[in-house]
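We treat protein structure as text, and this decision shapes the records that our systems exchange. The remainder of this section carries one protein's record, kept here as part of the documentation:
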Amino acid sequence: MLTEIKKIIVIFIGAIFLAASLNFFLIPANVFASGFTGVAQLLATVLPISTGVLLFLLNIPVAILGWMKIGKAFTIYSFVSVAFTTLFLEILPVHQFSPDILLNAVFGGVIAAIGAGITLKFGASSGGLDIVALVLSRSSDRPVGIYFFLLNSLIVLTSGIMFDAEKALYTLVTLYVTSRIIDAIHTRHVKLTAMIVTKKPVELRKAIHDRITRGITRIPAKGGYMEDDKEVLMTVLTRYELYDLKQVIQDVDPEAFTNIVQTTGVFGLFRKQD
C-alpha cells in the first residue's frame, strides 16, 4: 500500500511539472511538446477546446488499447497521470514569464522532461504516444523510436505550416532538451537487457513471468568468492517494464545482483507467447 501511495504521489508531482511547462512556457510561446501533448496543443489552436481537455479526450481510446494489449497496472497509472495533467492544465493559468522564445523552448522542455522522467521512473508514463508506440512495437517488433520520430516529425512540420519555420525550429529545441533530460533521469533506451544473478532462480523466474510478458534464459553460475551455486536470469525488456522488474526482484530476492545494459538490437522471438 505504501508503494502504491508513493507512486501516486510521484505521478501527481510529475503532472504538475508537465502542466507548468505547458501553461507557463510552451503554450504562450506557441512552441509544441512531443507526443499527444503536442497534438493537443496543435488542435487547441484551431478548436474552441482547451489543451487539457483535448489531451484527456485523445487518451481515452489509447487507454482502452493499453488495457487490452499492454497491462492493467501500467495503463491505469498512465491514465491517472493524464487525468492529473488535465486537471492542472485547467487550474494553472496560462502565463508568460518571458517573451524570449528560446528561454520558453528550453525551460519548457526541461520542466516537461522532469515530469515525464520521474513518472517513467516509477512505472507509469504520460500516456498517449508511449502506449501507442509500445503496442505497435510489440505487434511488429520494430523499434519504438520509429513511432516517436514519425509523430514528432508531424508535429514539427505542422507547427511550421500553421505558424512559421521559426516556431518549428524552436519546437525541435524543446524535443531535443526533453529527450536529453529524460536520458539523465530515467532512460531513453527503448530495449534493455537485465542480467540477474540469484540464488532463487525458480521463484524469481515465476514471479517475473507473472508480472512481465517476457522470456527468460537461465544460465548456471558460481560465485567467485564463496563459490556457491547460482543462476543468471537474462531477459530483454522495454524501459516501461523496468520498474516492475525492480519491484519483483526486491520482493523475491533482495540480495540478487542485477545488471541493466542498453540493447541496440534484438533478433528472434522478443515476447513470451502464452
Strands lie at 191-198, 217-222, 229-238, 257-262. The radius of gyration is 20 Å.
